[in-house]
Amino acid sequence: MSTVQGANVVVTGAGGGIGAALARRFTAEGARVAVNDIDPGRTKAVADEIGALAVPGDASAIIEEAREALGGTVDIYCANAGLASPGDAFADEDVWASAWDVNVMAHVRAVRTLLPDWLERGSGRFVSTVSAAGLLTMIGAAPYSVTKHGAVAFAEWLSLTYRHRGLKVHAVCPQGVRTDMLTAAGSAGELVLAPSAIEPEDVADALFEGIEADRFLILPHPEVAGYYQGRAGDPDRWLATMNHIQRKWEDTAR
Ligand SMILES: NC(=O)c1ccc[n+]([C@@H]2O[C@H](COP(=O)([O-])OP(=O)(O)OC[C@H]3O[C@@H](n4cnc5c(N)ncnc54)[C@H](O)[C@@H]3O)[C@@H](O)[C@H]2O)c1
C-alpha cells in the first residue's frame, strides 16, 4: 500500500505545471486532494479532471478552508505555488514583496495553521517546491533566487526543529521543468534551464521516491548535487563559473 493512501493532501499552485502533476499523482496513489490555485478556472479544471476538491484563491488565504473541505485534517501540505520574479536589485518593490509573500511567507503561514495539529498527532508532512535556484542561484532573477534561498532555509529550519516530533519535510529543488514558468523565464531560461528541462511528472516521481526514502532534499536533476557541493567547497570558483554563464547570457541578449 502507498505511504500516502488515504492521506488528506493540499497542493497549492496546482492549476497547471508541477502542482497539477503532484495533485494527479497523489490522487492516483489514493490520497484525498484539495487543489488550490489563484486562478479559479484552472483550479476547477484540474480538480474536476482528477476528482479532487477545488479550493481557489491565494495560497496564504485558503489554508483553513482547505482543511475544512478535507474534513478537518491535513496530512500532507505541498507549498508549491510560486512566482518566477525576474529582475535585478532595481526590480520594483512590488516584485520583491510579492516574491517574498508567495515564495516564502505562504509557507510560513501554512505552517502556523497546520503545525499545532501535526505536533499533537505526532505526524505531518510539509512538501516545499523550491528550486535549484534556492541552492544555487538563477541568472537574471534576484528576487526569485533570494526568496527561494529563503524557502530552503525555512524548510531546513522546520525539519531540524520538529523531526523528532514526527514532522517530515521535503525540499524539492528541480532545475528546468517544462511548464508555463519556464516559458516565462525568457532568454535566461532558454540558456540555463531549457537544455536539461524535465517534465512535471518527473518531479512528481522524484518526490515519491524521496517520500519512500524519507529524504529531505529531493533533486529531480541529480547533477544539482554536484553543483551544490561545488558551491560549498569552493565559492569563488563557483561564482566565476556562474559569472561566465551570466556573460554568455548578456551576449545572447545583445
Ligand atoms: N518550471 C520550472 O522550471 C521550475 C523549476 C524549479 C522550481 N519551480 C517551482 O515550481 C513551482 C511550480 O511552478 P511551475 O513551474 O509549475 O509553474 P506554473 O506557472 O505552471 O505554476 C505555478 C502556479 O502557481 C499559481 N500561483 C501563483 N501565485 C499563486 C498564489 N499566490 N496562490 C496560489 N496559486 C498561485 C499560478 O497561477 C500557477 O498556476 C514554483 O514554486 C516554481 O518556483 C519551477
TrEMBL record:
Pfam families per record: adh_short
Entry-linked Gene3D superfamilies: NAD(P)-binding Rossmann-like Domain
Claim: Isomerase is one of the keywords in the record: no
GO molecular function terms attached to this record: oxidoreductase activity
InterPro entries with a match to the protein in the record: NAD(P)-bd_dom_sf, Sc_DH/Rdtase_CS, SDR_fam
CDD domains per record: SDR_c
Family recorded in the similarity comment: Belongs to the short-chain dehydrogenases/reductases (SDR) family.
PROSITE patterns: ADH_SHORT (PS00061)
Protein name as it appears in the record: Short-chain dehydrogenase
Originating species: Streptomyces wuyuanensis
UniProt entry keywords in alphabetical sequence: Oxidoreductase
